[in-house]
Amino acid sequence: MAISRRGFLKGVLCGGAVAMIGPSLLVPASADAADEIWKVSGSHWGAFRARIAGGMVMEVKPYDLDQNPTQMLEGIKGLIYSSSRIRYPMVRYEWLKNRDKANPATRGDNRFIRVTWDRALDLFYQELERIQTQYGPWALHAGQNGWRQTGQMHSCNNHMQRAVGLHGYYVRKVGDYSTGAGQVILPYVLGSTEVYAQGTSWPLIFENSDLIVLWANDPAKNLQVGWNCETHEGQGYLLQLRDKVADGSIKVISIDPVKTKTQNLLNCEHQYVNPQTDVALMLAIAHTLYREQRYDPTFIETYTLGFNEFLPYLMGEGEDKTEKSPEWAAPICGIDAEQIKGLARRMAEGRTQFMFGWGVQRQQHGEQPYWMGAVLAAMLGQIGLPGGGISYGHHYSSIGAPGSGASAPGAFPLNPDSDDERIHKNKDFKGYSSTIPVARWVDALLEPGKKVPFNGSTVTLPDIKMMVFSGCNPWHHQQDRNRMKRAFHTLETVVSIDYTWSATCRFSDIVLPACTQFERNDIDVYGSYSVRGVLAMKKLVDPLFQSRSDFHIMADLCRRFGRHKQYTRGMGEMAWVESLYEECRKANGEKFPMPPFAQFWEEGYVAFEGANPFVRHADFREDPEINPLGTPSGFIEIFSRKIASYQYDNCKGHPIWMEKAERSHGGPGSEKYPLWLQSCHPDMRLHSQMCESAPMRDKYAVQGREPVYLSAEDARRFGIKDGDLVRVFNDRGQLLAGAVISDNFPPGVVRIQEGAWYGPEGAEVGSLDTYGDPNTLSMDIGTSKLAQATSANTCLVSIEKFTGKPPEVTAFGGPDEVMPS
Ligand SMILES: Nc1nc2c(c(=O)[nH]1)N[C@H]1C(S)=C(S)[C@@H](COP(=O)(O)OP(=O)(O)OC[C@H]3O[C@@H](n4cnc5c(=O)[nH]c(N)nc54)[C@H](O)[C@@H]3O)O[C@H]1N2
Ligand SMILES: Nc1nc2c(c(=O)[nH]1)N[C@H]1C(S)=C(S)[C@@H](COP(=O)(O)OP(=O)(O)OC[C@H]3O[C@@H](n4cnc5c(=O)[nH]c(N)nc54)[C@H](O)[C@@H]3O)O[C@H]1N2
Ligand SMILES: [Mo]
Fold first, then answer.
1. Atom of ligand 2 nearest to the CA of 504
2. Any idea which fold 675-816 has?
3. Which of 147, 288, 470, 816 is the most exposed place for a label (fewest CB within 10 A)?
């Protein structure tokens, strides 16, 4: 066991959770067979102990400090030893023959040739050089990133971007897929992005809330993973909440089209709402609060701006002459008018805490529900009170667990230490934008030079010729696979660095095998927000096959253009780990004493004591003059002059209800494609990570395919039985999936979880996806001219039983290896 008894006890005492000492502590795990050892590491899925024997990971068990481990730990072994691991550097056959003149339609043809590391890195370097000299920085996009594995030193997005940055400038992204609409709208409304901010502490919520409204929020599912090593404290609070629901001390309502995992766990009330119609429901609640004088005029007067500009719209005196009454909203959102009034009254009755999830802003006009949610919370007048107001993050990385207040270790730097170190100093983007909204890069490939409105400015889409991906999987994360496939035909060169043969690797030209995080030493914070401690992530096994750490790969790339020293700062892996630790130790000083590095590495963990209760927006409430919000006025902006000045047709000066391009339950497009496809985050994966873990997939796959969840009523309507192979389709694409009938789903709503690996029958556009990636069907449009974020949850489909001989699943196991001729 790499964690000493002393280090462990320190950790236990800090959380005041002495009860968690279990038998595992008393019996040293290393007392097993002589050649077996236990090592501790961390991950998105939490910290764990692994039993190593014969150079292999044999068993994975939760870390002693984790009281609520996720079952996803069971997938780790299958991830390391997956048949999809990339064994050696490979280059696409057609591309190697013809380079940038290769027929682009062959990209994705799955024919690769094995090359040496030297050859692969030479090719990568030559391509960077060719792009910078033949075109310029505008032709290279190396700025996409994603859910790299944990560990502050090996954070692979940083490694790739620093290395490519030492060579020259390139196009980057702004925003992310998670909260793209939320993080753009909320600074106008509440003065900060809110989504990643610390939230009111759970203990204070328990003490003060009468009602918690989970709005489009499934924390029991989503708190299983964290951005850094997850502690699962959030899960612990959910279990406490379950007890409070049971004894009646707190009421919880889950407003969601689906009965979520959380709703089932808490056994709380469920308020069904038609998909994508939350803003109509919120307007009707606001209407009731106003009509029945149940809102808080003093709060509105003291802390907000623009209520009077909003009121005419609400009360039917605006341009559209439509009163947003419960009777108006009822047929849109599928909730009876009296029921809506009842909801409004209950919200106004006591202390009410809104907790929003993020799926509801990952749809067309996704800015609106967040803005209107803030307006509702302002009308209730409880923003800044413990257990009241609004939160947009309690389902994420244990936000709401009171933080220690200590500093976490920093990461390997993303950028060159100085711009002078870059080989190519040319930063002339020829009028193209050097930064584009994260989800709009496919637009750039298809329409280079197009001018796109974005958040009050104009973006000119660059003419991208080469893309480099590391630690992200765009062939999972981006919407509308077939459109994207067409767009990829415009690219000359694609490079991917990954440990697994994701679809992105298959659609690349040069593929470099990284090792997994379990094959390198690292350091991480324990608890992304709570900062409970610092964890040593011990290398469990050597890099498999010819894989190398991202650090090793990128250092060797930099050697090719004489920037090896600048890249590494002359330090190796352990020197970096130590320096990140020492910086953290210095920052924490006397307040949070940390032992010298050697002792830490030996003991494996340093705990930070203390837990500081926190109330979101309390300082603003206390004194809005001294602690103004970051909005233009310093107040909560119900009407935003700034947004109104942009004159966007799809994001006006105050929140409004707008019809969607596609909407179920009688909305546009529902006659042809009657089912709403929601592509929520997976219960047993992290996006596409672990989909390749066969033992994990066995827990949920149906006939070897990704499940599509649907109601019994829809199953009857479409002639489908539980366990059937089905084709799910619309005008954008088609996929095979396995039907799972579930009481959690209402008629008209189906779910395929995001991250299912894309496995097309062939490279051609429109080809049937044999495994079930929902982005084969989703729509690739911006949320609005304001945020230009992803609209994945605006998507209609139809479904039919698949008859005939089912094609083999092509998603897993890597490409066909072509022998050099
Ligand atoms: N297990 C697991 N946990 C994760 C992740 C993972 O991949 N796996 N990913 C992490 C990441 S990166 C992120 S961004 C977060 C994602 O966090 P979220 O985006 O909040 O998660 P989702 O599950 O996609 O959606 C949450 C809920 O929104 C509901 N919903 C969708 N559309 C509507 C609507 O129109 N109206 C209403 N009322 N409800 C709606 C869905 O039914 C679902 O219950 O999760 C994080 N946690
Ligand atoms: N339809 C639909 N689409 C969605 C969403 C949705 O709700 N619906 N959600 C969106 C959201 S919120 C998000 S955050 C994105 C997630 O999108 P991504 O972050 O792109 O998804 P991941 O599957 O986590 O991809 C990470 C990739 O990095 C690789 N990787 C991990 N660690 C390392 C490493 O150390 N080194 C190297 N070289 N590679 C590594 C993994 O193998 C994997 O291929 O998806 C978005 N897409
Ligand atoms: Mo995300």
1. 44
2. Barwin-like endoglucanases (2.40.40)
3. 816
